[in-house]
Specification:
The chain is of the alpha/beta class. It folds into two domains: 5-122, NAD(P)-binding Rossmann-like Domain (Rossmann fold); 131-218, Alpha-Beta Plaits. 37% of the residues lie in helices and 29% in strands. The strands form three sheets. The chain has a six-stranded parallel β-sheet, with helices on both faces. A five-stranded antiparallel β-sheet has the order 7-8-13-10-11. The longest helix is centred in the middle third of the chain and has 14 residues, at 121-134. 30% of the residues are buried.
Length: 219
């Protein structure tokens, strides 16, 4: 895996978790924050950390903002600073700017001022937990853009059998792209591959197809 370069603006809980995880995964991570205390707490856990006012375009330009694969604006408690930092990052050539927000209104505002992606961690996690509680057999799920998604399911008896017999594409519009059986991964399983209870199968499909699969598993 080729290491990427990330700039994280804001060293709060979300920014710190994001930055240190990216660093632990082998990427180069620069973190900036206006708080000296926040920078001291993270400086030994990332590639570089500095006290910087990220709403200042010149400060971001000096950091080489345009050279990073992605810039994450993780200022969650100050919408004005979040907006200004997002605008500044885009103005100095930020390739891909992701902004963290707390509300749907803030998300719309950030999208309008140039954020390439907007994330709402608390909202998204709430939706994710609710879905898992409603359908325990779904282990994980995420969207692939606005129209498609991926879900990982623990196979129960009603979903056991060969893929050819189960006809997942015909019945639900989803396709099995991988199966994990006791730690052994089968990528692109053929039609005669038999799903067994306890297997973990990864399915891909349109959002409508994913929802149809959810409804079936919830019955």
């Amino acid at each position: 895996m080729k290491a990427k370069q990330f700039l994280v603006i804001g060293a709060g809980r979300f920014g710190t978790a994001l930055a240190t995880t990216l660093y632990d995964l082998g990427h180069e991570v620069v973190v900036v924050d206006r708080s000296e205390e926040a920078i001291e707490a993270i400086m030994h856990r990332v590639t570089h950390a500095a006290i910087v006012d990220a709403t200042d375009e010149e400060a971001l330009r000096k950091l080489g903002c345009s050279n990073f694969d992605a810039v994450v604006v993780a200022i969650g408690d100050n919408l004005e600073a979040n907006i200004l930092a997002t605008v500044a990052a885009k103005s100095v050539g930020g390739r891909h700017v992701v902004s963290k927000v707390a509300s749907a209104l803030a998300a719309r505002v950030l999208a309008r001022v140039g954020a390439d992606d907007v994330v709402r961690p608390e909202h998204d996690m709430g939706v994710r937990v609710a879905r898992q509680l409603a359908t325990p057999s779904i282990l994980d799920a995420f969207d692939l853009g606005p129209d498609h998604g991926v879900i990982e399911i623990e196979v129960r008896p009603r979903l056991a059998g060969t893929l050819e017999h189960l006809r997942l594409r015909n019945r639900f519009g989803v396709q099995a792209i991988a199966v994990n059986r006791a730690g052994k991964l089968e990528v692109g399983p053929p039609g005669d591959f038999e799903l067994r209870p306890g297997d973990r199968v990864v399915l891909i499909g349109s959002n409508d197809a994913i929802q149809k699969m959810r409804d079936y598993l919830s019955e």
